Amino acid sequence: MQITVMQNVLQANEKKASEIRELLKQKKIFMVNLISSPGSGKTTLLEKSLPILKEKYRVAVIEGDVETDRDAKRLDGYGVPIALITTSGACHLESVSIEKAFSALDLDALDLIFVENVGNLVCPAEFDIGENVKVAILSTPEGDDKPMKYPLLFREASLVILNKTDLLEHVNFNSDNFYSDLKNLKGNLEVIETSCKNGLGIDEWIEWLQNKIENL
Ligand SMILES: Nc1nc2c(ncn2[C@@H]2O[C@H](COP(=O)(O)OP(=O)(O)OP(=O)(O)O)[C@@H](O)[C@H]2O)c(=O)[nH]1
Ligand SMILES: [Mg+2]
Predict the structure, then answer these.
(1) HEC profile for 141-200?
(2) Which of 59, 61, 111, 135 is the most exposed place for a label (fewest CB within 10 A)?
């Protein structure tokens, strides 16, 4: 019985996600679903990216958090619209919440939407929200074993950002194991190594995004 209910939830989510994807296509908007564990650097990456991207694109952010508007407040002042979704306990965003967030945004005035999903490596990967791409962020202190332990996200992602590379010398992160596990999971998965602390890889990440947007 429970399985049926879950299937219905997933089917309803998929249907709404398809509608969102169609709407984004009509409006020529590129939407990025940022997914990682709590603290891997989603908001920090946005803080580094928004000043560069908003010079070229009309950008907005949908901020998903279990509680508080802290991340939304951090992004206040970057001069881009922010729509906050507080899930009150739910561990991921669903397409119906994205539709609600859209009503707070002027879609005709946007080229690019970032969704910062709830910090979690499991559930956000299961729920299509109509995005163009899922970007998985893993930070080096979390360990090189995470792709094999949480494979769905890494299979679903179009890009993996390996963040906090400035901490590599202090943590037990085996890059060889990380890359060989990723290759076994999904052979052609792109990886960009970044540090939001010293700026490594930020240009490459912006270039990756621009490429995707231009080829919409
Ligand atoms: N050393 C180092 N610290 C970083 C880097 N990127 C982010 N941080 C720090 O990591 C902490 C968490 O970063 P956030 O950007 O808040 O992480 P988040 O993924 O948005 O977290 P949630 O929204 O809670 O899921 C902050 O103290 C950041 O300053 C990095 O590349 N290197
Ligand atoms: Mg955050």
Answers:
(1) HHCCCHHHHCHHHHHHCCEEEEECHHHHHHCCCCHHHHHHHHHHHCCCCEEEECCCCCCC
(2) 111
Write out pLDDT tens, residues 91-104: 999 999 999 999 99
Instruction: Work out how many domains the chain is built from and give that number.
Output: 1
Closest CA to 164 of 145, 139, 143, 147: 139
Q: Which residue has the higher pLDDT, 6 or 175?
A: 175
In the block, tokens 């979704």 appear at: 85
Domain span including residue 15: 2-214
Are 112 and 30 contacting, i.e. CB atoms less than 8 angstroms apart?
A: yes
What pLDDT, on the 0 to 100 scale, is given for residue 4?
A: 74
- Between the CA atoms of 50, 40, 95 and 206, what dihedral angle is there, to the nearest 10 degrees? 30
Q: How far is CA 41 from the centre of its chain?
A: 11
Distance 216 CA to ligand 2 centre (A): 27
pLDDT tens by residue, 138-151: 999 999 999 999 99
The CATH number of the domain where 60 resides is what?
3.40.50.300
Q: Has residue 1 got a pLDDT over 70? A: no
Whether residue 13 has its Cβ less than 6 Å from ligand 1: no
